[in-house]
């Protein structure tokens, strides 16, 4: 939407809007850059405390995806104060605060407005060394791709809305989305990787395509290696696919070469709009085993080598 509007350039703006990256990065000294991001949305689970945790974990994710360390967070609240009990808002904020503390960050304030539709999220500020910023624009041919959470949260959230999820699966879904990408981010910055992005609303295909375009490479995904919450495949087969996932497939279709012998439902899952999804990490092949092992040691929700980076055709996704 900003296209054509007069944006000022600034040599200290290391990551702006051009590459559709996860967050803005601004250098404030030769040793330090600020990472700034903001995310908020409507409830995707019924439990207010869990909604708060999920929205907060999702907001932190963009700082982690840039290789940064979060410092401060601010609440963004839209609340229908005449229709809903304030106890609900208190639970949401409590969930958010618990995640802020888990991230090792501090809550510094926020803003709330009265709105007929409840929404919550955070604005998060973090820091990173200017030379160690992980963008989505530096994946290299020969790299392998690692994903740190299973796909399928969009399908399961749709099933939940339709009253089709049992309690056990509802809890499993909430826990997965409320899990911070903190451990995965710490491990990847220790080891040193080439590029990273987190998987959220555009699904694995959409975010991988942004990486392929920004890095001028081809990304090849091995469909059978991609971790998926098994129940999500069943629900997707029944047609429980969020609207956003259809849009993602459409958005990617011009740049997508998907093997014909794959079941159509696999395409639906790969494009599934995620909330608080995992990190997609592009790392040199030599470091891959070490990274995988350390991710396992830190109990990362999923640890899978899901693809590779090729030099050609640039800006394309191949699914095999
Ligand atoms: Co992101
Ligand atoms: Co975001
Ligand atoms: Co990034």
What does this structure look like?
With 320 residues, the protein is an alpha+beta fold. The chain folds into two domains: 13-132, 60s Ribosomal Protein L30, Chain: A; 144-319, Alpha-Beta Complex (Phosphoribosyl-aminoimidazole Synthetase, Chain A, domain 2), CATH 3.90.650.10. 37% of the residues lie in helices and 25% in strands. The chain contains ten helices and 13 strands. The protein has helices at 48-65, 86-102, 153-161, 167-178, 182-191, 203-215, 230-237, 243-252, 264-270, 285-297, and strands spanning 13-15, 24-29, 32-41, 69-79, 106-114, 119-128, 144-147, 195-198, 218-221, 256-258, 279-283, 304-310, 316-319. It has a seven-stranded mixed beta sheet, with helices on both faces. It has a six-stranded mixed beta sheet with strand order 1-2-3-6-4-5, with helices on one face. Helix 1 (48-65) runs parallel beside helix 2 (86-102). It starts with 12 loop residues before the first strand and ends with a strand. Residues 22, 62, 65, 197-198, 200 line the site of one cobalt (II) ion.
